[in-house]
Amino acid sequence: MANILVIGIAGGTGSGKTTITRKIMERFGEEVTVLYHDNYYKAHHDLTYEERTKLNYDHPNAFDTEMMVEDLKKLREGSAIECPIYDYTIHDRSDDTLTIQPSRIIVVEGILIFHEETLRKLMDIKLFVDTDADERILRRILRDVNERGRTLDSVINQYLTTVKPMHEAFVEPSKRYADVIIPVGGENQVALDMVLGRMSTHLAT
Is 204 buried (19+), middle (13-18) or exposed (0-12) by CB count in 10 A? Predict the structure, then answer.
């Protein structure tokens, strides 16, 4: 498939990446393919549930980024992929996969997608969503408790022991690779309009 535009959307947990991705999908529908880095968490079928809950899911090594790179290459070439599915309720990769078809615009979303150079080089535009840390932890608490069945204590403990230190060590430094930094996430309508405009121009060519 010729003339594919790949847009990377990175930023800390709860920064508003998914809000921007959702608004892009609402605007362009099936003309956009979305690839989530979270689906590429490594499988840990060999570990017990308790052991899996103690893993560091915010370190680059938690992801099978090599697999994501190969899948993104296939999409760029116009081929469909079988994307893994991660089940947050069991802290492990599901046995099911999701068939993803290529399209003119591919959005890659995740906290650490700019960390790995091989993945970065496959992106035409790199956006970093920059949101205040207090807002991000509140959003993460609401998401993990309401959508992922976590307890408040477990979310706070995970944030303090792994999420915050990993953000400072890996996510924040990756911001220097961004082409555009978007403050206050999905609420930044000016930045969103610019992104949507660029995508509209691409689809019109």
Answer: exposed
CATH of domain 5-204: 3.40.50.300
pLDDT in tens, 163-202: 899 999 999 999 999 999 999 877 889 999 999 999 999 9
Q: Phi and psi of 11, rounded to 5°?
A: 145, 165
- What pTM value is reported for the model? 0.90
Name the residue type at position 108: V
**How many Cβ atoms are within 10 Å of 79's Cβ, its own excluded?**
12
pLDDT attached to residue 134: 80
Q: How far apart are CA 57 and CA 41, in angstroms?
A: 8
Closest CA to 59 of 123, 111, 94: 111
Task: Give pLDDT tens digits for 22-55.
Answer: 999 999 999 999 999 999 999 999 999 999 988 9
Beta pairing partners, 105: 5, 32
Residue 34's DSSP bridge partners are 107
Q: CA 119 to CA 113: how far, in whole Å?
A: 7
CA–CA dist 14, 35 (Å, integer): 18
Q: How far apart are CA 6 and CA 199, in angstroms?
A: 10
Q: Length of the chain in residues, anyone?
A: 205
Query: Tokens for 131?
Result: 């949101």
- One-letter amino acid of 97: T
Q: How many CA atoms lie within 13 A of 81 on its CB side?
A: 23
- Domain segments of the chain as ranges: 5-204
